[in-house]
Amino acid sequence: MSLASADTLPGEFAFTDADFEALARLARSEYGLSLASSKKPLVYSRLARRLRARGLATFRDYMSLLDRAEEAAERLELVSALTTNVTSFFREKHHFETLRSALVPELATQKRIRIWSAGCSSGQEPFSIAMTLLDGLPPGARDMRILATDIDPAILRKARAGRHPAEECATVPDEFRARWLRPVPGELDLVEMSAEIKALVSFAELNLICDWPFAGPFDAIFCRNVAIYFDQETQQRLWSRFADKLRAGGFLFIGHSERLSGAALPEFETAGVTTYRKRATPGPARPT
Ligand SMILES: C[S@@+](CC[C@H](N)C(=O)[O-])C[C@H]1O[C@@H](n2cnc3c(N)ncnc32)[C@H](O)[C@@H]1O
């Protein structure tokens, strides 16, 4: 009988501290993901199914596989396994109330409107933004786009289809549901976003810690429940990069357990719960 060594997690696959550290280094350098050592059992349980799927016996084999250039898809499986795609329509409703009451009146005077949903998952966030804008803005010709990005190509395929289980649409206000959600013929439990809403949203694959191939500026950025996976340094770099992409007065909405910190703080003023507005000129430096 062989006993696992002290630093090896007991289980189906050998997973040493050295394996965990190598995995954590890769997750951080490539995707900004922060894996504290307390997460070792969680990482094991999330990734064991990938080892099974690839017919591997040890985490060391899995690491060697991830190193290969042609294993880009497996590296995305890794990100999927270490993060979640949980989302919902009008999640953290107060952000949509602020969008409607504080930003839409300004946008009504603009010809060009740009909003970014960064880490959009299966699309409920950008579609909620689109419904809020269409409901609040007066009719008229304008150049309006919602850019919706995520690192996960599989979730983006779902998002582009714009089809959602009917029961998940309970948080869409009744009036919006009547205007912009349609039954899917032959699919009793599914509803689909209308073409009018889908046409406003452009989905694209993007790793937030890499280069951003678009100029902006944006009137608002939603990046909610994404940075929570990143270490503090990556988060702070992200907040500064968002500040660079927002126009003066533009809004940044972040997730309920996220906080702005670091060099970007003087660039923003607080405008509500986890809601920030870019100042026209940076304010005094604030403690982080
Ligand atoms: C919990 S969901 C949040 C969805 C939505 N923003 C919300 O709050 O409902 C987190 C999303 O972040 C994405 N994500 C994780 N790491 C990322 C990265 N480095 N770049 C871009 N997206 C990432 C995941 O694929 C996932 O879809």
UniProtKB/TrEMBL annotation:
S-adenosyl-L-methionine binds at N85, T87, R91, E125, D150, N207, L208, R224, N225. It is an enzyme of class 2 (transferase). Residues 8-281 form the CheR-type methyltransferase domain. Its EC number is 2.1.1.80. InterPro entries: Bact_Chemotaxis_MeTrfase, Chemotaxis_MeTrfase_CheR, CheR_C, CheR_MeTrfase, CheR_N, CheR_N_sf, SAM-dependent_MTases_sf. It catalyses: L-glutamyl-[protein] + S-adenosyl-L-methionine = [protein]-L-glutamate 5-O-methyl ester + S-adenosyl-L-homocysteine. PROSITE patterns: CHER (PS50123). GO terms for biological process: methylation. Keywords: Methyltransferase, S-adenosyl-L-methionine, Transferase. GO terms for molecular function: protein-glutamate O-methyltransferase activity. Gene3D superfamilies: Chemotaxis receptor methyltransferase CheR, N-terminal domain, Vaccinia Virus protein VP39. This is Chemotaxis protein methyltransferase. It comes from Alloyangia pacifica. The lineage of its organism: Bacteria, Pseudomonadati, Pseudomonadota, Alphaproteobacteria, Rhodobacterales.
